[in-house]
Amino acid sequence: YCDDDSTLVNFIQVFECNMEANRTVFIIVLAIALLVVFTFLKSTAENYLTPALSTISQRLSCSESFAGVTLLALANGANDVISSILASNSSDRDGINLVIGSLFGAGTFVTTIVVCVCIINSPSGQIHAQWASLARDLIFYLIAVSTMLYYGAVGSINFTQAIIFFSIYIVYVVIVVLQEYKGGRKKAKDNLLQRESIVQEVDALLHENCIDEYYAEVATNSNTPERSESKATMMNNLLDMIQHEYLVQKLEAKNEEDNARTEDKAEVFHAMQKFGFHFKKFWQVGGSSWKKLSFLEKFQAIINIPFDLVRDLTIPPSSDENYNRNYAMATPLFAPVFLIWRFYGSFEWITYEILYGVIPFSLILSFVIWKTSHARRMPRYHLAFAIPAFILSILWIAVAAGTLMNCLNSIQAIFGINKTFIGMTLLAWGNSAGDFFTDGTLARNGFGMMAVTGCYSGQMFNTIVGFGSSLLMLTKESPVILPLFSAEYKLQLLVIGALFISLITALITLLIQKWIFTKKLAVILLIIYITLAISASVLFAMSL
User: Fold this and answer.
1) Segment 6-34 mean pLDDT
2) Among 19, 124, 493, 509, whose Cα sits 20 to 30 Å from the Cα of 287?
3) What does each C-alpha distance from 312 to 53, 62, 448 come to in angstroms?
4) In Å, how far are 339, 494, 521 from 111, measured between CA atoms?
5) Which residues are CB-neighbours of 344 under 8 A, at least 6 positions away?
């Protein structure tokens, strides 16, 4: 395998052939490699995939709820989903254990530790939840985890069962859209009733001679030349006041509506996307001075410099915020190079016929972009940029996820660590780092409901869609054998059971506490994860 060039980085080859099996040096290299890969995955999803999906959603006129639970959920969970698919698609059937450890381990970490951090960081020490959306997310998440426990009790999962598991999220999307439709109709009815009420109030004022009373009061109490105002002028002033009050009420209603939307992280995220904004993770420079950044933040900012250059040249800009005509013109020239390398691994197969066909076509596209776009503003044909940006972003994430899987597989092969344990620690923590810091910051700034709702809805998407996709791929030819309640699968049962306990505990506690996240619940969730960590460590030590 010292001559194996089938993967981007063969860590086993590096360990055996380049480092002469020096484990100390290899551990340092692995730590740096994991940090680089996780940084690349996060920044690609946030800065390239999310704007592309936002533009697609906007141009296709998708509703906010539908986009939030589909396109934006895919943008947030692309790393986990693609990593799961690649792990399950490997020749090693043991990859399912890595997927279980990663997705259910991340779900447990986020629904315990991250929720606990959100509660503690909340200015009041409490987070008031909107019961309808949170109960919906918790119940569907519990259904998915309970289904997985049932499959584990049966001992195997076939293709039909995999379809049923994946369909849980489809039903969830349908319910979210129906709730939005029902809420929209109710809102329209309320607005109509409000307008009718205002018209009736104006009619009553006119019929009860309130105009005369208002005119008399102003004429009596005023010591200004305004005494000479005509009754018609006074009437206009009063009508203006009524109209102003109506507009104020409308603005207050809109603010209340916007505040309600913050209770669903995915929906708010999409609403901001529609106006050309997208979240920047805290570790990016993003306006912060260099001196204020920590060592880790500076390291990640430096890492992103060459990555940004490569991605800007191969992924077309998909929003006005990140649009640059020079990079847009370069994309048709460099994106084919990336595609050839991605699918063929080399450029040896390129013939002159293909070369002469691709280059002129790319030059024509670059010329069209130059003539039809502004230096800092996208042309009207947004989808022509957004769809390729989406595809190329997914391909770059797949490249990084493949490198991550290679890295984790080398850890298992060289150090003999259980794949489920690797998934629930290294992979789960790495993929959840963004939620840990971002959701905690949101809660500190007063958006606690947005943060905790995102914890449950985001991880539900990753678990159902990510694990469901893995099951669909693994069960195409034969069922997956997964006897969770056997001695061999203790660690897998532990991590799935811990997620179930954290969800049912949160649901019951919130019902008792009238949907208020308190520090008491935070302590309970913290104890659940500590218990999981100790139990998993004991099982891992016993398996050595």
Assistant:
1) 76
2) 124
3) 17, 27, 34
4) 38, 16, 11
5) none
